[in-house]
Write a structure and sequence with these properties.
With 293 residues, the chain is mainly α. The protein has two domains: 6-137, no CATH class; 141-278, no CATH class. It is built from twelve helices and three strands, in the order ααααααααβββαααα. Strands 1-2-3 form a three-stranded antiparallel sheet. Helix 1 (12-28) packs antiparallel against helix 5. The two termini are 19 Å apart.
């Protein structure tokens, strides 16, 4: 349990006030939160949103000892964030800017939390606060800008991998042809369905383990590369199954393998940090026995 003992400045009234203010912020922007939930539920490329709350909670949990050294302080800056979030949503509504509508709702939520706990608490739990930005569904234009190069790179590497494995394949754009069966990368294994989930996994790993900041930045920068690697690992057998097996079986494999890529990415990150340690490159800020920061 998170110990919010009165001797550290926390009391039941803080919990009640925080709960009420968070509830009020969500209720004030209920339409936007319902829209975020709807998008995350219906759009597979936005399903990573469901991972954000548990990861944010986890990042708070592993830093729970910090509550002892940062008592709550009512902050008027939180009120300014609430106002800024409301204005962002209002202006975005007038200009039909969806990201602004959702971003304003998230900003109001952060402002509500900051109003009660203060800036010091927010600063001590900044990784958990920053990840809340991914609650905002990625705009379509940005998704297309990322998906195109990602799909092309994945198709190229997958074709090369299958050729090394001894399969005769042909590639035309983002379509891989195997055994006279065309398999579209955009349909069989769209990287956008995984890239943000893998970014979340990378983020959670980077701020769970007490790594040096330079290593954390490196992990986050390499997360798109990890997405391509995991996509190829997933796509190569998927293409083979679409070419030589029953389509229903291939569809089931495609769906199940997508979830398996998340723990695989986590293991890859662990392996990368071990490799850095083996190369005697400074990796950790403290010993592994200390609390993650």
């Amino acid at each position: 349990m998170i110990n919010l003992s009165p001797r550290y400045g926390w009391s039941a009234k803080h919990v009640v006030f925080l709960t009420v203010l968070i509830g009020a912020a969500i209720f004030a922007m209920l339409d936007q939160w319902l829209d975020i939930f709807k998008i995350a539920s219906l759009d597979e490329e936005s399903s990573h949103i469901f991972l954000v709350p548990p990861i944010a909670f986890w990042l708070v949990w592993i830093r729970r000892i910090r509550f002892r050294r940062c008592p709550p302080r009512t902050s008027w800056f939180g009120v300014l964030l609430i106002i800024a979030g409301y204005l962002t949503t209002s202006i975005s509504h007038d200009h039909s800017f969806q990201a602004g509508l959702h971003g304003g709702a998230v900003l109001m939520l952060i402002g509500a939390i900051m109003t009660v706990v203060g800036m010091q608490v927010i600063a001590n739990f900044m990784p958990a606060v920053m990840i809340l930005a991914l609650l905002v569904p990625v705009p379509g234009a940005l998704r297309l800008a990322i998906a195109g190069p990602l799909q092309n790179a994945t198709a190229r590497v997958t074709t090369f991998t299958l050729e090394i494995m001894g399969f005769y394949v042909q590639r035309s754009g983002n379509v891989v042809n195997i055994n006279d069966t065309p398999v579209a990368v955009a349909e069989a294994c769209n990287g956008m369905r995984m890239v943000f989930a893998l970014v979340l996994v990378s983020y959670a790993f980077a701020f769970t383990v007490p790594l040096r900041n330079s290593v954390r930045v490196l992990i986050l920068l390499l997360s798109p590369v990890a997405a391509i690697v995991c996509n190829v690992i997933r796509l190569a057998p998927t293409v083979i199954l679409y070419g030589y097996a029953d389509q229903d079986f291939a569809d089931n494999f495609h769906d199940i393998s997508g979830w398996l890529m998340l723990p695989l990415a986590f293991l890859m990150l662990m392996g990368a940090t071990r490799a850095l340690r083996w190369a005697m490159i400074p990796t950790y800020r403290f010993t592994l026995a200390t609390q993650a920061s």
